[in-house]
Specification:
By secondary structure, this protein is mostly helical. The chain has one domain. It is 66% helix and 0% strand. It is built from one helix and no strands. It starts with 10 loop residues before the first helix and ends with a helix.
Amino acid sequence: MDVSFLGGITRANLEEQFANWDSMASDIKDFISQK
């Protein structure tokens, strides 16, 4: 996941980052609930 702030932050970039965080957060929750 490469993020560049040189070109400024666009709405599309933000939405992509939130999508990545959402999937990562759910992965973490799945991992924790497996214990």
